[in-house]
Design brief:
With 149 residues, this protein is mainly alpha-helical. It has one domain. It has helices spanning 6-17, 36-54, 60-68, 83-99, 104-111, 126-143; strands spanning 29-30, 34-35. A two-stranded antiparallel sheet has the order 1-2. It is globular, with a radius of gyration of 14 Å. The two termini are 24 Å apart. The structure holds fe (ii) ion (FE2) (2 copies). One fe (ii) ion is lined by residues 70-71, 88, 113-114.
Length: 149
């Protein structure tokens, strides 16, 4: 069974989490008041664990970067703002691209994370597919009060 490089994954993740611009996600919340930065961390860790569990070889750096920045939209959603569900992946990408130079794979991880809701933004890699799954799984857990993964 293939083992991905855990050190590489967490090194990239921790590096991004120290970035003051990325840390702005701490000021916003989602899923019952969970800080967005925490949610993004949870999604990153969960998607990496899924890859390990499945024995899927993934790009550790792309997964860490794409997953951590997937909700980099920098606002707290208003309760009835349904458009947010469709719009925020593009906003997250725009903010992320202003700070980092992203690979096609990393861009697709961000823009496709709401798939299948965003019908045309399809996950095009194992990494992107796992992040869409982990995002939904973490959202449910966080709604039920779980904060840390
Ligand atoms: Fe999202
Ligand atoms: Fe999310």
């Amino acid at each position: 069974m293939y083992r991905n490089n855990t050190n590489q994954f967490f090194r990239v993740l921790a590096g991004l989490e120290r970035d003051p611009q990325v840390r702005r996600m701490e000021q916003y919340t989602q899923h019952k008041g969970n800080p967005t930065l925490r949610h993004c961390h949870n999604v990153a860790v969960t998607s990496f664990r899924m890859a390990q569990r499945l024995g899927w070889r993934i790009d550790e750096s792309a997964m860490a970067r794409g997953a951590l920045l997937h909700d980099f939209h920098l606002y707290t959603r208003e309760k009835k703002d349904w458009k947010h569900l469709f719009r925020h992946p593009r906003l997250a990408l725009r903010n992320a691209e202003a700070l980092f130079s992203l690979s096609q794979k990393e861009k697709n991880i961000i823009t496709s994370h709401m798939w299948p809701l965003t019908v045309l933004s399809v996950p095009r890699s194992k990494e992107a597919f796992l992040v869409t799954l982990a995002d939904k799984y973490c959202a449910v857990c966080e709604m039920r009060g779980r904060r840390n993964f």
